[in-house]
């Protein structure tokens, strides 16, 4: 058996925990006073098949666990529940998407994760330090896993908020921005859409556990499961607010670009009008009319130059006052 896939394989009995081999699970699984916690990271199909033999898992659930990119779902089989959920966490200063498959039986929980994140070490530690009358068991372990998955959204959302505030400050400061800023806003909206698709199904998972699986959301833990659901709802609401703010920022940016473009067109039109006036006047004298009596006047040329210059100055001041140049 490939040990590199196994992160944890713990047996809890008589308020004590000990590490056991994956091959020994079947020796303890039939004893209801014992609980087994297993965490695997990106195992191969052989390891998952062997785990299924040890726990007696359903073949269809094993097929789902072998293949990644599963949709978030909760499926109930004869002796266990299978949960596929997508995860996200802030890992090495970037958003790391992952996937976790859970097998939950009467006295075991198996977490199979596919990501590069920190894993479920916190779950293992809290199971070993269980107090307040809570015993390590499937209901408590499942709650700890779901609680950790939802909690990992918070740093990601905070990072997104900082990212948005930076872009918003750049937009509001009037700093030179263009296609690059628009691309960054669009990239952020795309990340938020992905984040929403990961977060929203968690509400359905926790709600189904509370309503349809009283054996897992026990009376003692129901309040804890409701707290996870409340956190999932707040995560989705925070993501939606950020998506709306990002969309508004994109509209503001596009409107700003449109205004700047209009201002440029106005300035070009204003300077064009200034150039058109003397162009029209002087072009008349290149048409070789026979009767142009002013050509014989001694002051015709300076008068024409002064009149044209005065007209240009008047037009310039009017355009300047209206902000066209």
TrEMBL record:
Give a short account of what the protein does.
Mediates influx of magnesium ions. Alternates between open and closed states. Activated by low cytoplasmic Mg(2+) levels. Inactive when cytoplasmic Mg(2+) levels are high.
Organism for this UniProt entry:
Thiobacillus denitrificans
Q: Which domain of life is it from?
A: Bacteria
Compartments, as annotated in UniProt? Cell membrane
Matching Gene3D superfamilies: CorA soluble domain-like, Magnesium transport protein CorA, transmembrane region
User: What reaction does this enzyme carry out catalytically?
Assistant: Mg(2+)(in) = Mg(2+)(out)
**What is this protein's record name?**
Magnesium transporter CorA
Chief localization class?
membrane
* SUPFAM superfamilies recorded: CorA soluble domain-like, Magnesium transport protein CorA, transmembrane region
| Any single Gene Ontology cellular-component annotation | plasma membrane
Topology relative to the membrane: Multi-pass membrane protein
The UniProt similarity line reads: Belongs to the CorA metal ion transporter (MIT) (TC 1.A.35) family.
Membrane-spanning intervals of the chain: 268-287, 299-316
The cross-references to InterPro entries, in alphabetical order and at most eight, read: CorA_cytoplasmic_dom (IPR045861), CorA_TM1_TM2 (IPR045863), MgTranspt_CorA/ZnTranspt_ZntB (IPR002523)
Against Pfam families, the record matches this protein to: CorA
Q: Which GO terms describe its molecular function?
A: cobalt ion binding; cobalt ion transmembrane transporter activity; magnesium ion binding; magnesium ion transmembrane transporter activity
Q: Which UniProt keywords apply?
A: Cell membrane, Ion transport, Magnesium, Membrane, Transmembrane, Transmembrane helix, Transport
């Amino acid at each position: 058996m490939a040990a590199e896939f196994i992160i944890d394989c713990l047996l809890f009995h008589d308020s004590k925990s000990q590490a056991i081999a994956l091959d020994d699970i079947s020796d303890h699984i039939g004893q209801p006073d014992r609980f087994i916690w297993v965490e695997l990271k990106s195992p191969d199909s052989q390891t998952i098949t062997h785990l299924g033999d040890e726990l007696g898992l359903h073949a269809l659930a094993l097929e789902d666990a072998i293949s990644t990119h599963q949709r978030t779902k909760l499926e109930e089989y004869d002796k266990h529940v299978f949960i596929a959920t997508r995860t996200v966490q802030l890992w090495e200063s970037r958003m790391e998407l992952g996937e976790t498959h859970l097998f939950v039986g009467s006295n075991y929980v198996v977490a199979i994760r596919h990501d590069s994140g920190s894993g479920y070490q916190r779950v293992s530690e809290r199971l070993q330090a269980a107090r307040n009358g809570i015993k390590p068991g499937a209901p408590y372990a499942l709650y700890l896993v779901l609680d950790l998955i939802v909690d990992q959204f918070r740093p990601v959302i905070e990072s997104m908020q900082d990212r948005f505030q930076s872009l918003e400050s750049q937009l509001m400061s009037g700093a030179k921005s263009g296609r690059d800023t628009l691309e960054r806003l669009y990239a952020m909206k795309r990340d938020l859409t992905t984040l929403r698709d990961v977060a929203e199904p968690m509400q359905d998972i926790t709600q189904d556990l509370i309503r349809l699986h009283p054996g897992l959301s026990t009376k003692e833990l129901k309040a804890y499961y409701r707290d996870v659901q409340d956190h999932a709802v707040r995560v989705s609401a925070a993501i939606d607010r950020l998506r709306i703010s990002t969309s508004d920022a994109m509209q503001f940016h596009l409107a700003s670009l449109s205004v700047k473009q209009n201002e440029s067109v106005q300035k070009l039109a204003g300077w064009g009008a200034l150039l058109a006036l003397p162009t029209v006047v002087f072009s008349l004298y290149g048409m070789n009319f026979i009767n142009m009596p002013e050509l014989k006047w001694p002051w015709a040329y300076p008068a024409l130059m002064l009149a044209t210059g005065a007209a240009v100055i008047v037009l310039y001041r009017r355009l300047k006052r209206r902000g066209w140049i």
